[in-house]
Amino acid sequence: MTSALLAWMIFSSCADSQPIVTVESPDGRLQAVLSIDQGKLYYRLQSGKESLLGPSRLGLETSRVDFSQDLVFDSCTSTFDGFYDYNLPLGRQTVEHKPYRERTIYVKNRSGQRLGVVFRLSDDGAAFAYHVDGTGCDTVLCEYSGFGLRPEARGYLQPLAAGKTGWARTNPGYEEGYVAEVVPGTPSEFGQGWVFPSLFRSGEYWLLISETGVDGGYVASHLSDSLVDGNLHVAFAHADNNGPEDPVTPIVTLPFTTPWRTIVVGRTPERIAESTLSQDLVWPRYRAGAGYAPGKAVWSWLVEDDPGTTFENSIRYIDLAAKLEFRYCLIDALWDTRIGRSRMSELARHAAMKNVKLILWYNSNGSWNDAPQGPLHRMDTREARREELQWLRQTGISGIKVDFFGGDKQQGMRLYEDLLTDANDFGISVNLHGSTLPRGWDRMFPNMVTAEAIRGMEASKYDAAKEAARPFLSTVAVFTRNAVGPMDFTPTVLNAVMGVHGNRIPRVTTAAFELALPVVFHSPIQHLGIVPENLSEFPNFVWDYLRDVPTVWDETRCLSGYPGRDAVLARRKGGTWYVAGINGENCDNKQFDLVLPTLGRAELIRDKAWNRNAVERLQVDIPADGRISFSVPAYGGFVLVIR
Fold first, then answer.
1. What angle do the packed helices 511-520 and 540-548 form, to 10 degrees?
2. 32, 39, 477, 531: least surrounded by Cβ within 10 Å?
3. pTM flag (> 0.85)
4. Residue from 222, 224, 248, 244 nearest 164 by CA
5. In the 3-class helix/strand/coil scheme, how is 503-537 assigned residue by residue?
6. 3-class SS of residue 311
7. What tens digit of pLDDT does each residue of 563-595 get?
8. CA torsion 369→373→379→385, rounded to 10°?
């Protein structure tokens, strides 16, 4: 018997107290069962008789009150049944009349002070948050929220990098690789824990653990890498994040409610990819200051690096965007010195004549990184930021890409919220890079159009090992990072070799794999890695497809997939379905057997035999039962368009 199993059995038996409250999902399949054992508050998550999470700790401690021990049951509210109804203009799914069920449980400590624990269950998962009454300010010293995973559970996890490490001290940027089949309690590579979201396969179920609703009023959290009484637990940002003077514990104004801790539950990985729990639980913090439009963008930096940021080359890419009828062109780092502000106004006028909108890159930095790329110190203070945003609006710039954030402390969360709020005042959209996970921010902040928080395509042009791992990472991201929010992976490089300066790294994926990514990955502004020379290298049907493929969706279904192996997503916009799949393994002729969401005549784009950088188009009639099969090469893909 392993030590982990023994600890779980002992902990389960000692916490096997009489339940005080049970909260069920609307369909009755999920139950959160709360109990108090020896003065400590626990919950279990189960599906019928199947235990999804064993005894899992609840509670918190502040500088004023201790809700970690000596607790007794006080009261609970009646069950409240509600519905989610919303449509995110930049979303991947319209949510209509999605039911949820909620109860708030109150416990008291030995001083008679009261803690509220809100549990809300929908058919795709559970969430909980704490509420503390009072007046004035307080400091949350520790949160005891835990997740009692079964001993046989295995994780698909990204290690949290230490702050002030990596290139120019830009970590943590949520850009490490994923580790598969992690035994809970295994130390992470950097000893800092695991980032959210954290995916676990447990028995016949899959669990995606994360948080949502974080803003400047709290700190961003992560998952510990050590077990405490059989639990992995929520941990606050480390001292090495952000400024050294910034506290690691959040300072709150009473009364306060914490962000939601979320557990998405699915019988299969496909159900995890379809969940909208991270968006369901939050609400917009302000009205959109402009009509933030989705669309596709071209940019030179991904392939051409810093030398590509010139006035003349930017004209080429603006003209490429116009030719392809893309909405955006991103001008990346160093534009302030390599192009200059006066000539940027000239570029903006040229783009406007071509019906293309410009996005400009900025360094976020104050004292938290040493990255030399500019513009510098234009986004880290409110006075400089609003002056810059005013210039952007006057120049006709539609959005900004802000990079190299400093970590997960509360001060970092305030910077994100202040940046997004200020930008909205000027009608400027924001793309967050080198950033933390966007925890529900695509609904909370209407001008947050996308965010990185993934080891995206740019890593491949510097490191052959990272390019070799990219197909695996791409399939894992469908069920982890992209399952909780938009992801700016910057996909679809059609050059057979990554980069034109410095390293020359062969692309390991096929052209059809690359063409599938704008459907497989959701990002309201999809930055594609194509270059002007590609226009003559691929047939017209490729450019027709890229011109037409949407970046926001009315409906999303995951038809099949397994993290690290493959993924097939079906997304609908209006009356057209796009079905795209990728093979993340070095396994030739992998068979994809699918049941499609609609019938009709379809256009199939697939890899061309014997040429990994060529594709062909076929017309396909979908049979009456909707069943269809594809054979896909190693690291290959396909796109099926059903109109």
1. 10
2. 39
3. yes
4. 244
5. CCEECCCCHHHHHHHHHHCCCCEEEECCCHHHHHC
6. helix
7. 999 999 999 999 999 999 999 999 999 999 999
8. 150
